[in-house]
Specification:
The radius of gyration is 18 Å and the shape is globular. Strands 14, 15, 16, 17, 18, 19 and 20 form a seven-stranded antiparallel sheet that branches. Strands 1-27-26-25 form a four-stranded antiparallel sheet, with no helix packed on it. The protein contains no helices and 27 strands. By secondary structure, the protein is an all-beta fold. A hairpin with a 2-residue loop joins β22 (333-338) and β23.
């Protein structure tokens, strides 16, 4: 069944980008897959020209880019391998992937458009160099059923080799789960977790996933992947109705959730990062509706356990959240979108400061992302509304 135009087709996670940082890779906020959060791919944690933060954060009024009819998904990544972040979006009604290649100075070329089969209606999208070192994408779509689609990047902004499987859940995240140095897809349902393994072979999506029991609870709202117990393998965090779980990975992709922490409301998204700078992963959940519009911060201790809920500020009707070190002070900051608002909040170490925000054209923001698009060492914030791509670009003080 094809959902109505402009609707939240899944009712569960039209808002999230899997790990919550919006870039498609597991939790570092940069899109290059090296895990350091800087986007330059050298693994040192700092962009080549960015040393000695923190940097002052100044944002211009949001700018808009066209994203096709009924735009849905957005992620950031170095699609063409030139060291600059690019924008990847999906158009539900135009059946397309659209890439704006970034020059690294805040400017973008004409969009590179990959047309999808006319029966394919794409929504949430994540991307990463999955197996061959070239940036690929995985996106949720609707044909006769809900499917997950993998397409290989051609290194210049286009994608090919359309391959799909029936999606066990509308939620999914990308990350290394079983130690084979390739990227896996994790998709949780209420009582089971599915892992689809990548490979270096021609086919990426296997017919039979690894399935493990996981009583997550009701109304799942987000999933992210990161190493919570600081061993050799990534774990999974899932946000549900009033509960957030961390599931520890055995090293083979089998996860077992621990006791959840609780909060008030229905989760709309989840993101992970190091908010207090102690080198342990923390979690931020957004909740939406029923009088519980808010953000919720849970500090991790490095064992897989989370502390109690610390309620944080959020725009009205928050739908998506991302974490990343916007000002390069060693602590991850948060971006949250809701209604027509795109907002960034800098970490204080125990929470977040006042909002730095702008108003986007359009409404119903979906995936939000953080990344330095103009090379000034300050993270920019991008989201997708029903009017197109909205970017709160940083500017020189």
């Amino acid at each position: 069944m094809v959902p109505p135009t402009g609707a939240d087709e899944t009712g569960e996670d039209e808002t999230g980008d899997g790990d919550g940082d919006g870039d498609g890779d597991p939790g570092d906020g940069d899109g290059d897959g090296d895990g350091d959060g800087d986007g330059d791919g050298d693994g040192d944690g700092d962009p080549e020209t960015c040393e000695g933060g923190p940097y002052p954060v100044n944002y211009a009024d949001p700018i808009m880019l066209l994203a096709g009819a009924n735009p849905q998904g957005l992620t950031l990544g170095d699609v063409d391998g030139d060291g600059a972040l690019d924008l990847v979006s999906t158009s539900y009604d135009d059946h397309e992937l659209r890439v704006y290649l970034g020059a690294g100075d805040g400017s973008f070329g004409a969009p590179v458009i990959t047309m999808l089969p006319v029966e394919t209606f794409p929504s949430a999208v994540h991307g990463q160099a999955i197996a061959d070192g070239v940036y690929d994408v995985v996106f949720r779509a609707y044909t006769n059923t809900t499917v997950l689609v993998r397409m290989r990047g051609d290194g210049s902004g286009g994608f090919n080799d359309y391959e799909s499987l029936d999606a066990p859940s509308p939620l999914f995240a990308l990350g290394q789960m079983n130690g084979d140095a390739t990227i896996d897809i994790v998709s949780p349902k209420a009582a089971l977790t599915y892992m689809f393994g990548a490979s270096l072979q021609e086919s990426y999506l296997p017919e039979s996933p690894i399935v493990s029991g996981a009583p997550w609870g009701a109304n799942l709202g987000g999933v992210a992947i990161g190493n919570f117990d600081e061993d050799e393998s990534n774990d999974v965090v899932v946000a549900a109705l009033g509960q957030v779980y961390v599931a520890i990975n055995s090293g083979m992709g089998i996860v077992a959730p621990g006791s959840p922490q609780t909060f008030m409301g229905a989760a709309s998204d989840v993101a992970i990062g190091d908010v207090d700078g102690d080198d342990h992963l923390d979690v931020v959940v957004t909740t939406l509706g029923g009088g519980f519009d808010a953000g919720h911060l849970f500090f991790g201790d490095g064992t897989g356990a989370l502390g109690p809920d610390v309620e944080i500020s959020a725009p009205s009707a928050p739908t998506s959240v991302a974490l990343g070190d916007i000002d390069l002070d060693g602590r991850d900051d948060v971006a949250i979108v809701g209604g027509t608002t795109i907002a960034a909040y800098l970490s204080t170490g125990t929470g977040f400061g006042l909002a730095i925000q702008g108003v986007c054209q359009g409404q119903n923001p979906k995936q939000v992302a953080i990344g330095d698009l103009n090379g000034d060492c300050v993270g920019d914030v991008a989201t997708m509304t029903d009017a197109g791509i909205c970017i709160m670009m940083s500017s020189a003080p």
